[in-house]
Write a structure and sequence with these properties.
Number of helices of chain A: 17
Helix content of chain A: 25-40%
Distance between the termini of chain B: 30 Å
Bound molecules: flavin-adenine dinucleotide
Order of helices and strands of chain B: HEEEEHEHHHEEHEEEHEEHHEEEHEH
Structural class of chain B: alpha+beta
Number of helices of chain B: 11
Largest interface: A-B, 100 and 92 residues
Number of strands of chain B: 16
Shape of chain B: globular
Oligomer: heterodimer
CATH topology of the largest domain in chain B: Uridine Diphospho-n-acetylenolpyruvylglucosamine Reductase, domain 3
Shape of chain A: globular
Strand order of the largest sheet of chain A: 15-12-14-13-18-20-16
Chain lengths: 490, 354
């Protein structure tokens, strides 16, 4: 027996069953349970059904059918999203793209790979490694997350300071609209006629269309890479050093920061040899030819020391480089051992504000009575404060959420954004009201309608309704002013 | 968001035009008047919207009002040891940054460093209702809301009046060297492709008339090593060549015949008819002379690319840009309507019905 017995719903499920291969439609509770949430686990709901199409035609068929029946559809890759972009709804079909997992073409000559959306990020680099190439964006979740999810979130990674985000590394998409029509967006040339829909679709959180194929750009693997581990006796000095590196005209291949709490948590895990007495460390990487790296590392070290580094260690070989990075890579799980729960925030700010914002977060720790570990993409100004709490202690979860919210508002005040790379999903709908005024939100809804008139693709995510913002009471009132009050409206 | 007198009066003009349903022709310095279909409507100029709002070396970001001269922006960045990576063509001294973003055109470095749209971080626009809106921001990573800022790149002013733009900048390379090779077109394409697959500091390539020029930019050591790997001596005065290529002042661009811009996958086969100039490792191909509109378009489509009639005395009725499929055109029209419901801005400039 299916969980939903309402006749309309069961007809949709029956029709989906007829349209797809046997076993591609799940509706039994125990079968759909694994899909009840993504990595934002506090939001859970069982979907109406889970469908597992195995090619583009089936994806289009599911969409067409659901569109006709007026049933919402939510796309899902690997479910590693941290903002609830793939959180199900009880009235919606959850469409997993996991079975579209083939690498369709690798052309080392043209330096491109054409892949289905369910291909894992790392699988692309592995498949092209023998040609000396790789796919640059490398989210920490890269062993699991899919390229379709990366496109939907415009994901970044440790190396995106130098090599760009997803949007900078994709050349073409095929997408299926909610009506089940397949569109080709670009085809491998460096630009496309008309509006740049490639850019518009990237980061659209599955609200505009379902990505059925992605052509990615591959780049040659650098000959050599070395990383500097620089220690600082204050987080403010470390923040200043980040700005100094960039101002010196250096674009490191990676520039990451970890604070004292994080260092203390990871060191027992990985024995990376991090200085435990440091208030903050920076990992600053250089890549390129051996000579180039040599030249750049000297320059980087000079800037870091001048900025107040108390110690600089340059990796001597690949093993040591891997060890220095191991701590950064293990940081989230390691911090996870410090408290029963943690809440991972994701805001971005201009680099020059790093020191001030980190200081302010320090002060908020005592205000909320919760600790916060900081490990983040410093070079990009992309913060990932990890707020530690215990969900079993009354009020702590709510306090953690309030703490996170205040951090995001602080980011906006400093000219930054409420999300650098994790997306809005369901998590940050309220904070969108802080960053955007009503008219801009209306434009987002308009863009959504231009693709999906009836609002059936991943509804209720990414863009809050104006009503929700009014209820939240934060319709982007900045410094006591309503946005451009002098401009009358239609 | 500071609302200046200029912004207010621009908003009022747009509202008045909306009430009277008058088309508006948005213009910066007019340097790209030739680009796209003939501009129509009452002139709406950004010449008073000038000035660099913010430019801090540690941020690698510049914010400027849309009417600011591209030259002024580039000069300021040079002072900071920075530049616009995509080397936007100016096509005249009056070119503005707003016009550069709206046209979306990129210069020689594009294939190796990214397109203009890759560097757009934020925009402020006035839409077809006369409302001042802001999308994106001043930070490099920002995934809040749809990426409307990047959508503006190359939209040719059909979605709104750009009033302010924020772009990411890059440090100027420390060393630069241009190598020259005598090669025919097929071999030049092959070489450019082989070299691009190696970790070499390529920053521009151009081939015309049996001569391939390759620019290397980066750290001293990287440029030196690449020069040795590729062979050849650094060409004297190459800076002028790249500048002339970017500004289309080379002799190739002089003639009166139509100039086609073909954007193709770099590995598309060599073109065999007409006078050809290659850039971007073969991904950008300028074709001089052909008047066979359908033939050129079919050729570009066959290889997965598109063709723009870039400069011509007469433009075809379907417009200079590669026609869109009916569904894509319909989608474009729905998007246009979101920003400009009455179709005030630059009607027909991008596509006849847009
Ligand atoms: C431990 C951990 C570390 C992480 N590190 C990083 C990091 O370093 N950088 C970073 O940017 N992110 C990081 N993330 C977040 C997450 O991995 C990325 O957002 C990733 O891109 C999500 O991919 P996914 O396949 O899991 O997508 P899902 O979570 O399944 O879906 C994410 C969104 O994409 C949509 N979607 C999925 N597939 C498609 C499709 N084919 N077409 C249209 N829409 C689709 C969904 O509807 C949803 O809105 C991390 C997450 C975890 C758990």
């Amino acid at each position: 027996m299916s969980r939903n017995s309402s006749s309309e719903e069961s007809t949709v499920i029956a029709r989906l069953r007829r349209a797809l291969a046997p076993g591609a439609v799940l509706s039994e509770r125990e079968d759909i349970k694994p899909y009840e949430c993504d990595a934002l686990t506090m939001h859970r709901e069982l979907p109406l059904a889970v469908v597992l199409p195995s090619d583009e035609a089936e994806v289009a068929a599911v969409l067409e059918l659901c569109h006709e029946a007026g049933v919402p559809v939510i796309a899902r890759g690997a479910g590693t999203g941290l903002s609830g972009g793939a959180t199900p709804r009880s009235d919606a079909v959850l469409m997993s793209l996991a079975r579209l997992s083939r690498i369709l073409e690798v052309d080392p000559h043209a330096r491109i790979a054409r892949v289905q959306p369910g291909v894992r990020n790392l699988a692309i680099s592995e498949a092209v490694a023998s040609h000396g190439l790789y796919y640059a964006p490398d989210p920490s979740s890269q062993i699991a997350c899919t390229i379709g999810g990366n496109v939907a979130e415009n994901s970044g990674g440790v190396h995106c300071l130098k090599y760009g985000l997803t949007v900078h590394n994709v050349l073409a998409f095929r997408v299926a609209t909610i009506e089940g029509e397949v569109l080709a967006i670009g085809a491998g040339a460096l630009d496309l006629p008309g509006y740049d829909l490639l850019a518009l679709l990237t980061g659209s959180e599955g609200l505009l269309a379902v990505v059925t194929e992605v052509t990615v750009r591959l780049i040659p693997k650098p000959e050599c890479a070395r990383v500097i581990l620089a220690a600082f006796d204050s987080i403010v000095t470390a923040g200043g050093a980040v700005a100094d590196i960039i101002a010196a005209g250096i674009i490191p291949a990676g520039l990451e920061m970890m604070d004292r709490a994080t260092i203390a948590a990871v060191e027992p895990f990985v024995r990376a040899g991090y200085p435990l007495d440091a208030e903050a460390i920076l990992l600053c990487e250089s890549d390129g030819t051996a000579d180039e790296v040599q030249e750049e590392v000297v320059h980087m070290e000079e800037v870091l020391r001048r900025a107040g580094a108390t110690e600089c260690r340059v990796s001597r070989d690949e093993a040591e480089r891997a060890r220095f990075w191991a701590g950064r890579k293990a940081a989230f799980p390691a911090v996870g051992t410090l408290a029963p729960d943690y809440y991972c925030m994701d805001g971005s700010i201009p680099r020059k504000c790093l020191a001030a914002v980190l200081e302010a977060i320090r002060e908020m720790e005592s205000k909320y009575g919760l600790r916060c570990a900081n490990v983040f993409h410093a070079g990009d100004g992309n913060l990932h404060p990890l707020i530690l709490f215990d969900a079993n202690v009354p009020q702590q979860a709510a306090r953690a959420e309030a703490f996170g919210g205040e951090i995001l508002e602080l980011c906006v005040r400093h000219g930054g954004s409420i999300t650098g790379e994790h997306g809005v999903g369901v998590e940050k709908l309220n904070h969108m009201c802080v960053q955007f005024a009503g008219r801009e939100l209306e434009v987002f809804h308009g863009v959504k309608r231009a693709f999906d008139e009836r609002g059936l693709l991943n509804p209720g995510k990414a863009v809050p309704t104006l009503r929700r913002c009014a209820e939240f009471g934060r319709l982007h009132v900045h410094a006591g002013q309503i946005p451009h009050p002098d401009l009358p409206r239609f | 968001m500071r609302v200046t007198e200029e912004l207010k009066s621009l908003g009022e003009r747009i509202r008045a035009a909306a009430t009277q349903r008058r088309a508006l022709r948005i213009r910066g310095g007019g340097s790209k008047d030739f680009y796209g279909a003939a501009p129509q409507g009452e002139l709406l100029e950004t010449t008073h919207l000038t000035g660099i709002v913010d430019c801090e070396p540690s941020e690698l970001v510049i914010t400027a009002r849309a009417g600011t001269a591209l030259a002024a922006i580039e000069q300021r960045l040079t002072e900071h040891g920075q530049m616009l990576a995509f080397e936007p063509p100016r096509f005249g001294e009056r070119a503005t940054i707003g016009g550069a973003v709206a046209s979306g055109l990129c210069g020689p470095r594009r294939a190796y460093c990214g397109a203009l749209r890759d560097f757009v971080l934020g925009v402020q626009i006035i839409d077809g209702r006369g409302d001042l809106l802001r999308f994106g921001g001043r930070v490099i990573k920002n995934v809040a809301g749809f990426d409307v800022a990047r959508l503006m790149a190359g939209s040719l002013g059909t979605l709104g009046l750009l009033t302010e733009v924020t772009l990411k900048t890059v440090p100027r390379p420390k060393a630069e060297c241009t190598l020259q090779f005598e090669l025919d077109q097929p071999l030049a394409l092959e070489r450019m492709s082989q070299w691009a697959a190696r970790p070499l500091p390529l920053s521009a390539t151009a081939w015309h008339g049996g001569r391939l020029l390759v620019r290397l930019s980066g750290a001293q050591a990287a440029v030196r090593a690449a020069r040795q790997a590729l062979g050849g001596e650094c060409l004297e005065g190459a800076g002028e060549y790249w500048e002339a290529l970017r500004e289309q002042r080379l002799e190739f661009f002089d003639a009166a015949q139509p100039l086609w811009r073909l954007s193709l996958p770099a590995h598309a086969p060599p073109l065999t008819s007409g006078d050809i100039l290659l850039e971007w490792g073969g991904a950008l191909r300028w074709l001089r002379g052909s008047v066979d509109v359908d033939g050129v378009r079919a050729l570009a489509s066959r290889f997965g690319g598109h063709a723009t009639l870039f400069r011509a005395c007469t433009k075809p009725p379907e417009g200079p840009f590669h026609p869109l499929s009916p569904s894509m055109l319909a989608l474009h029209r729905r998007l246009k309507a979101v920003f400009d419901p009455q179709g005030l801005f630059n009607p027909g400039r991008l596509y006849p019905t847009l």
